[in-house]
Amino acid sequence: MRGLTPLKRAAWLATALLWPLAASAQTYPDKPIHLVVPFPPGGVADIIARPVAEKLATTLGQPVIVENRGGATGTIGAAYVAHSAPDGYTLLLGTTNEIAMSPTLYGTLPYDPTKDFAPVAIVAQFPNVLVVGPTVKAATLADLTSQAKAKPKSLTFASSGLGSTNHLTAELYQNEAGVQITHIPYKGGGPALVDLTGGHVDAMFATLPSAVTLIKAGKLHALAVTGDTRSTALPDVPTVKESGLPGVVVTTWNGIIAPAGTPQPVIDRLAQALKQAVEDPGIRQKLAAVGAEPSYTPPPAFAGIIRDDYARWSALIKKAGIKVD
């Protein structure tokens, strides 16, 4: 070491620090993996995480333990993973909310979605669905838009909380349709849907998995889905784009994310295992049953989606002046 120049000494030290990670990557995994879901048990993210974790455990030969760390629209769980050891044993079931939306909504967050994570793979995607309650006389999206234009702010839209995907999709709809609606935030999608079915609020851009059972039971009427194409779960319901608002295309993704600095061989091993999981007929059936589209997106493409979604939602949030304290 004494005969080395400062630059060569720094390079040697950096290499030495990476040796333990490289060695562990060769035997990965050799102990249980924790998959953090940044929302409470029973929610959409939790429902998607559990069958994926079960299949991962079979493929990798180690238990994959689902750990719910809910709170602050997913940001508590996301921050925990961002600051965990980058060794592949603590992963995040990330969603559009805490990765692409919340960093702009909150004044400060202890993580940067474009720098502090190593995207592994998207496993499922689903649109929102515009649903109306029993008291609303609207058969189509055009009907609802006409009502909103005739009486500004008279229609109420529920959401699972300020800055949620339900809320921001409604903001996008207002911008595109040129209407004014009244936002009613709830503490979660469940209470919002209960009040919607009871006629206490008029409409909601609900996540499809949370509303599909109520739609099929006839308790809510679906006017449009926000995907780029129609949903296989509701093939008779048109897209918002088909209904005349091409700018309202919103798809929520769920994907596995590791802390930044996780060795590439570990990322590759996880990505391959997730590909097998998403292609498994049993997993596909379980995800489709809740209105989710099984969808494998590899690490580079997933990273690009995060960057694009972050830029898109950041611009909308700033334009609408939405802030969460």
From TrEMBL:
Keywords: Signal. Residues 1-25 form the signal peptide. Gene3D superfamilies: Bordetella uptake gene, domain 1, Periplasmic binding protein-like II. InterPro entries: BUG, Bug_dom1. It comes from the Bacteria. Pfam families: TctC (PF03401). PANTHER family: BLR1237 PROTEIN (PTHR42928:SF5), TRICARBOXYLATE-BINDING PROTEIN (PTHR42928). Belongs to the UPF0065 (bug) family. This is LacI family transcriptional regulator. It comes from Bordetella bronchialis.
